[in-house]
Amino acid sequence: VGSANGSKMMTVRDLTMDPGAASPYHVHPNTEESIFVVEGEILFKIGNHRFTAVAGDCALAPRGVGHGIANASDLSARVITMYPHPSPEREIIEEPQFDESDPKQGFFSRKQTSPFEFMPGVSRYDMIGDFSGAESTYFSELTFAPGATATNHYHPAHEESMFCLQGELTAVYGNDDNIPLPAGDIFLCEPTVRHGVYNSSKTEGKLLAMHPVLNPPPRVDVD
Q1: Model-level pTM?
Q2: For 167, what's the count of Cα atoms within 13 Å in the CB-facing half-sphere?
Q3: Residues facing residue 40 across a β-bridge
Q4: Can you tell me the distance from the alpha carbon of 204 to that of 63, in angstroms, rounded to the nearest whole number?
Q5: How far is residue 223's CA from residue 217's CA, in Å, rounded to a whole number?
Q6: 55 exposure class (CB count in 10 Å sphere: 0-12, 13-18, 19+)
Q7: What is the pLDDT of residues 99-121, one digit of tens each?
Q8: pLDDT 10s digits, 24-48
Q9: Predicted pLDDT at 57
């Protein structure tokens, strides 16, 4: 998702990293960045903190704060990155001296958190939001049991990106009610457009929901 496919509010990238691959230490002057670990073991450098994260963890790099990531294992790794801006700027900077510690704010550790029931059959982790120091991001993961549905709704003034992380979900978009959303696919919904997700399969499905606004994102439930 980004300006190239019509977004006016956000950028989402799906990155696969070979063993030993790393990004340079850099800042985004015009936006914050959320980084979700899908697979593997990632070494994070954010500010003066250096720490390791694994699948299911998520970290926030605040606007103007230096950061970088590296694949810390001998296997391929994968991350999803989200910026609440359609055209993130990037400047490479020198690395500081690092402390080997998790940041006090802005790091979601899967093993230290439990999900909550969002709707019947749908559990949710809230990973990035005002509670983690974000300025304009709300990033969550939802797990759909077979047959579970997230209520159709629209957002009056912001976009939402929905990325299928696992399984095969089905999307609702405008007047279209049966759009396949298999793992690895994403769709962007514009403001005021009806949308939703449900699981008509026989296996569990997982979805990343990304908003370029703080929680709770303004929404209107509809039929």
Answers
A1: 0.97
A2: 21
A3: none
A4: 35
A5: 19
A6: middle
A7: 999 998 999 999 999 999 999 99
A8: 999 999 999 999 999 999 999 999 9
A9: 98
* Structure tokens, 127: 């990973």
> Residue holding tokens 């950028």?
11
- Is the model more confident about 212 or about 104? 212
Helices (H), 26-93: none
Burial of 180 (0-12, 13-18, 19+ CB in 10 A): exposed
Residue whose C-alpha is closest to residue 37's, from 52, 12, 56: 56
The pLDDT of residue 195 is: 97
Euclidean distance between CA atoms 177 and 197, whole angstroms: 9
Confidence category of residue 223, pLDDT binned at 50, 70, 90: confident
Decide the pairing of beta strands 58-61 and 33-39. Answer: antiparallel
**What is the Cα–Cα distance from 102 to 113, expressed in whole angstroms?**
15
Smallest CA-to-CA distance from 30 within 68, 70, 67, 64 is with: 64
Take residue 62 and report the two structure tokens written for it: 């605040």
